[in-house]
Amino acid sequence: MKSPRLIIMGGGIGGLATALAASAAGCEVQVLEKAERFAELGAGLQLAPNASRVLQSLGILDDVHKHACFPPRLVCMDAITGKQLTYVEAGAKFTERYGYPYFVVHRADLLDAEVAACRRRSGIALASSKEVVSIADTGSSVRVDCADGSHYEADALIGADGLWSTARKLITDQLPACSEYVAYRGTTSPERIPQREGLDDMTIWIGPELHLVQYPLRAGHVYNQVAVFRSPRYRAGMGAGDDWGTAEEFVAAFSKTCNYVRSCVPLLDHYRRWPMYFAEPLSGWTRGRVTLLGDAAHPMLQYLAQGACQALEDAVCLGRELQAHGDDFATVFSKYEAARRPRTARVQRSALQFGEMKHDGGPLGARFRRYLEERSLEDCSELDWLYAEHADLG
Ligand SMILES: Cc1cc2nc3c(=O)[nH]c(=O)nc-3n(C[C@H](O)[C@H](O)[C@H](O)COP(=O)(O)OP(=O)(O)OC[C@H]3O[C@@H](n4cnc5c(N)ncnc54)[C@H](O)[C@@H]3O)c2cc1C
Questions:
Q1: What pLDDT shows up at residue 100?
Q2: Are residues 137 and 290 in contact, defined by beta-carbon separation less than 8 angstroms?
Q3: pLDDT at 235
Q4: Are 190 and 220 in contact (CB under 8 A)?
Q5: Where are the alpha helices (DSSP H) in the chain?
Q6: Nearest to 377 by CA among 121, 115, 91
Q7: Checking DSSP bridges between strand 5-9 and strand 28-32, what pairing results, if any?
Q8: Is the CB of 185 under 6 A from ligand 1?
Q9: Are 90 and 101 in contact (CB under 8 A)?
Q10: Which carries the bigger pLDDT value, residue 234 or residue 91?
């Protein structure tokens, strides 16, 4: 029997994981990536146990763990008072509960492991500098045109082309909405970070309309920071390129934080910013022989550190359906979507709510802080729905 042929549009974390899962299910895969090379922008990534479970099933967990750090605690601090609000022990008991540890890794290390694994598989072809500009579903195949004039044809296409997905336009005219928040992120040498207890932890400092995330990477040889704040200059309708969320606003936003946070944020580069977008869950993300995956399907704010984790889960779920139903793409895609939509919608909505609570400067924020301070340090069961093994991944 002929192997089903797939085009995966986008060679990011989700697209490459899908290539591995689909190839393991017997597909011939062509990955088309718009960038000149397979590379990740930004620095650190938190990967919760649900992501490790996927990486294990893709056979790359050990390669990724080689470069990872395993924070002993996930700590939440008040960015204004400098007081600890709560923490989750992420040690042996946590790992035993979820089957896998919580870890942090440089994005490039994760992507390199995925690329290397793809190159080891004869059924996966990787092509960079291939920006897909049009997609035509003929009913019996899918044909794409790239910006360089080349064309590709396959039995079906997976749009793993991220937040501003071209494939998504075939399915919906809903555009991601601007959160009015912007992130500045980067790494620095650990020696430059002001000393305090718990630098090995994943620490989030929260305050009204801002937060700062900190953790070490690469066996502690680099230190990762992500600072996020709401731009007072943002006005409805402004796009990613407009003059809002500027370096001046960044400095002003963090001027009200405690001494420690104030001493850390100047170590972040001020020249590149990431405006943050989200979307309401779609009622469906498949049309004919085209389906979506990762940020293209369910763009979310990164407040639960789950965007990449969910893209990885999508990949394994799709692989499982390809394994079961081969080139019956109508069944594969509808089962994949039915399995993944409720969970990703919950993560999208929960991330938004979590952001509203942690960034609120009024009664909601005060209640949330009280909840954090009073929660039992022994009990992390509120994370079970996200981190524990669940049915939709089989
Ligand atoms: C500040 C910040 C911090 C985050 N932290 C975390 C975290 O700690 N943990 C976590 O799980 N998630 C985190 N996320 C979310 C995570 O980065 C994304 O959810 C994840 O990268 C999505 O992967 P993807 O493969 O779906 O899309 P992308 O990573 O966006 O990959 C899409 C790929 O498609 C390519 N492409 C685009 N258009 C085309 C085209 N027309 N033709 C061909 N190729 C195309 C792009 O070049 C890109 O390589 C964070 C996000 C931000 C902004």
A1: 96
A2: yes
A3: 81
A4: yes
A5: 13-24, 49-58, 61-65, 92-98, 107-120, 247-254, 259-264, 307-325, 329-359, 363-374, 384-387
A6: 91
A7: parallel
A8: yes
A9: yes
A10: 91
311 lines ligand 1 (CB under 6 A): yes
Mapped onto helix, strand or coil, the DSSP state of residue 378 is coil
In the chain, the N- to C-terminal Cα span, in Å, equals 26
Q: Using a 6 Å cutoff on CB, does residue 146 contact ligand 1?
A: no
Ligand 1 mean position to 220 CA, how many Å?
A: 24
Is 3.50.50.60 the CATH classification of the domain at 5-175+279-393?
Answer: yes
Q: In whole angstroms, give the CA distance from residue 314 to residue 319.
A: 9
Helix (H) or strand (E) holding 365: helix 363-374
What distance in angstroms lies between residue 315's CA and the mean position of ligand 1's atoms?
Answer: 14
What does the mean pLDDT of the chain come to?
Answer: 95
> Could you tell me if 168 and 292 are in contact, meaning their C-beta atoms sit under 8 angstroms apart?
yes
Structure tokens at 377: 């340090």
Helix (H, G, I), strand (E, B) or coil at 155: coil
Average pLDDT over residues 143-157: 98
Token readout for 251 is 């400095």
Strands 177-188 and 274-278, sheet pairing:
antiparallel
Residues 362-370: contacts with CB under 8 Å, at least 24 apart: 365/208, 369/78, 369/85
Alpha-carbon span 286 to 291, nearest angstrom: 4
Residue nearest atom 50 in ligand 1 by C-alpha distance:
302
The first and second tokens of residue 318, run together, are 């799709």
The C-alpha angle 290, 293, 299, rounded to 5 degrees, equals 125
**Amino acid identity of 142?**
V
